[in-house]
Amino acid sequence: MKTLPRILALAALTAALVSTSARAEDVKAGDLVITQAWTRATPNGAKIGGGYLTIENKGTTPDRLVSGSGDVAGKIEVHEMSMDNGVMKMRALDKGLTIEPGKTVKLAPGGYHLMMFDLKNPLKQGDKVPVTLEFEKAGKVSVSLDVQAVGAQAPGGGDRSGHGDHSGHMDMKKM
């Protein structure tokens, strides 16, 4: 019966290491804390991709995510997807995305997200993609997007339904 305590101890140690490494990638910028930064793998030839993350404002004044940049893409914009008369529509947030004090904003498939145009190379599962986010008050903030599987709906895999997938299958000219 000495094996069970050893297995439990090993499981507890593994869980502690995993939670510590996940927290090590949190990015703090002024009053903002950015966590769970990720993107999806894209097929060869894809020219667009989506970026997702969580932003918490621990301060007493609002801040605004204005844009992004990075060597991964020719342009990175802040976008929103919403339903309009039963049709999913996407639009750029020209004035950016406000993060109110004491609030958390999640950029996720099917909602707010980073839209990466003119991808320079395919995004490959397991890679990390450096991007710079620009905030009105916090300024420029470097984050690394973990590349998840094609169709992932959350960091670490999740649902592969493909809703809100920006892997090159959407015709942006029709928007």
Describe what this molecule looks like in 3D.
The radius of gyration is 18 Å and the shape is globular. Strands 1, 2, 3, 4, 5, 6, 7, 8, 9, 10 and 11 form an eleven-stranded mixed β-sheet that branches. The longest helix has 22 residues. The termini are far apart. It has 175 residues and is mainly β. Strand 2 and strand 3 form a beta hairpin. The chain has a single domain, classed as Immunoglobulin-like, CATH 2.60.40.
Summarize the topology.
Layout lengths: L2 H22 L2 E3 L2 E9 L7 E10 L5 E7 L3 E12 L2 E6 L4 E3 L4 E4 L5 E7 L8 E8 L3 E10 L27
Parallel strand pairs: 2-11
Antiparallel strand pairs: 1-2, 2-3, 3-8, 3-9, 4-7, 4-10, 5-6, 5-9, 10-11
Pfam families: PCuAC
InterPro entries: LpqE-like, Lxx211020-like, PCuAC_sf
Protein name: Copper chaperone PCu(A)C
* H-E order: HEEEEEEEEEEE
CATH superfamily: PCu(A)C copper chaperone
What is the second-level CATH architecture? Sandwich
- Kindly report the average pLDDT value: 82
CATH class bucket: Mainly Beta
As a percent range, the share of helical residues equals: 10-25%
Number of helices: 1
Shape: globular
Distance between the termini: 64 Å
What are the segments in which pLDDT stays under 50 over at least 5 consecutive residues?
Answer: 7-24, 158-175
User: Sheet bearing the most strands, described?
Assistant: 11 strands, mixed
Strand content: over 45%
Structural class of the helices, strands and pairings? mainly beta
